[in-house]
Prior knowledge:
Elements: E1 2-11, E2 15-19, E3 23-27, E4 38-47, E5 50-58, H1 63-70, H2 80-96, H3 107-115, H4 121-144, H5 151-161, H6 165-171, H7 175-178, H8 183-192, H9 200-216, E6 222-223, H10 224-235, H11 245-254, E7 258-263, E8 267-272, H12 273-291, H13 309-315, E9 322-328, H14 334-348, E10 354-358, H15 361-370, E11 378-379, H16 380-384, E12 386-390, E13 393-396, E14 408-411, H17 419-427, E15 434-439, H18 452-459, E16 463-467, H19 478-487, E17 499-502, H20 507-520, E18 526-529, H21 538-549, E19 566-569, E20 583-589, E21 594-598, E22 601-605, H22 607-610, E23 613-615, E24 618-620, H23 621-624, E25 629-636, H24 646-653, E26 656-664, H25 666-674, H26 685-691, H27 701-708
Amino acid sequence: METIRGTFIRSDDHSILIKTAYIIRCVGMAIDLIPYTPLIITGEYTSPAVFKIQSLSLDTDNKEDFIRLFQRRNFQKVGKVRATQIYNQLVYTAEKYDIHDFSYLSYEQISESLGELKLVPETTERIAILISGLQHRCELYDKVKDYGGTFADADALYQKYQGGAFDILLQTPYQGVGCGLSLKICDKIAKQAEFHPFDPGRLKAIAQILQKELEQAGSCCVTTDKCARLLEKIADTKTFNIISGYTLLLSLLEDKTIILQQNPQYGTLVYPRGLYSIEKQIASELLRIDNHTEFTGFQQYSGSWAPDNDQLRAICLVRTTGVKIVTGGPGTGKTSVIHEIIREYQKHAGNLPVFLCAPTGAAAARITQALHGEYTAKTIHKLLDIRKFGQDDYHPMFNKKRQLAKGLYVVDEMSMVGEALFLQLLQAIPEGSVLILTGDVDQLQSVTSGTVLKDLITSKKFATVRLTQIHRQNGESTIVTNYRHVRDNDGFLETSRHFTIDYPGDQDLMMQKVAEYYQLYKGQCQILTLTRKGKLGKNNIDLLITSAKAVNSTQYKRTGYYLGDHIMMTVNDYDKGYYNGDAGVITQIRDNDVAVQFYEGSLNLTEDDLFKAEHAWSCTVHKAQGNEYDNVIIVADDEYSNMLFRSILLTAITRARKNVHLITTHNALSRCLASDNEELRVTGLAQILQEATNAKTTDSTNCRLYCEA
């Protein structure tokens, strides 16, 4: 056994990062603490880079680091003198109660003791939770591990219920599912307390897990047969006797946690009540916006641009308010159409504002750049001013009760927008607005549940124009040609000087080919992978590039980041102004921070901020969606065959403006071209819209009439 003294950095993927002379990844006890909390960890190295924890505690003897910790922004109005007083008071209180060290003090003892210093109440509370919390977590872990629980489970329970967590778990075992505990753990506790398998709490927990599994698959509902199979699998924890999936289905219906809907395509669909409510509300909000029709003043297009017929019809969508859709593949001029729609609206709508947004920072940056900075796009999150109010508790400041201004709303890359976020956006848009939704319905769908753009087009309830004529490079680009081959399921790709396909052999040879192209472009390219994991995954490729770049370079405070590094933020920080998916380049390294150039401008990021980022020399195709690069290197092998489907290949090749280099195997490429799509998503939004009794029938014919009038 070895003992490590260091400071907590952050939790990350079932592990924690500890900073000593260098950063160590520790597994076995994932925990969420305030950054730079001093810790003592006991365990052993399982590899040179990984340490397995057996026990951990606060390093209460580390006065210097505790004083630094108390001065951090987590604790209001605490300077060095005040921080020293806090540390000394804690030591004194431990001696007063004849306790080994202050990590064993209770929440009440700490609160009473620090009350004498007359600190800001929030500061006293945070210190009490920090110090007493670790001990509570360890005690809680000792109890839940008897039922198969992990330290992460104990941490999640403590985050929600603090010191009384285990008593609550004994009284209402299935509350644990809401904290992330498995149903198996909750079942063991429940059986010991003589709960029965049809307990209402258990049924609610099973419904929660069903909803989570559907959301992870991108669906909002499921057929009855598949639902019965899922329910039986979820409930089979080997604790109670096996219950038929259909029996569980009937029980959930009686409990009103799920509902049934008839669908002409799928038959009877089963909805978790929460997901059904979202789809009903989306339909209601869309029809609210679309049914309140006003003329904007636009009569006919008078701009200097020469649009084709489809593009002209799309521009004419701005004649009236309501919901409009413009869809098309690469090279069809969606961005040019957006530009002209905005110009025409501004000519005729007076001083009404224009709101341009996209689902990710990368997508917002791309559309802003494509419009030459004339109009600046925001992420939907920034437009709605979504803020954090607690643990996993986010709310938009603009909402149904406090809407944005009446105007023109353009949402780009709509195929990436999930149902929950779309509903929040719709609720914030007032009647009398024009809502233009643009995107390529054939590309990858949202990482969250729903197929919003596809469903809206399928419903045929909203004016829709599909752009079909290719304009990019006179229609001769091999990138666009291959996009059409993939989209139309032709089963082959063409090659050219600007679109190469390499079959190097094994993974080592494939990695060598990646390096060759990377060196050819001197790093001015984007490597796209299908997954984060694996030898040819994003994580390993980034590690190899960063390791090579680190030679004879100076890193910033042992963070692993160097001048010129490409980074991507992995979490939202509403105070600092960066969001998950924002990509930038480190342009300057200073003593206390680094300057990072993002698309909206430069931000100064501290060491803490960089631990919420990752290198972005490569990224997954899903993360790259909505962005464009001059040169793209795509790596697709057989290691994760479930990721080989047409829409991921289609999205990958259309990220490139100039050159595509596909490094693959014959089998992987054949599977990509042959697979219809990723796992089928089941939604009912199109049907709900079609059945809405107050919907008005509308189609793109109206747009043609506007143009011909």
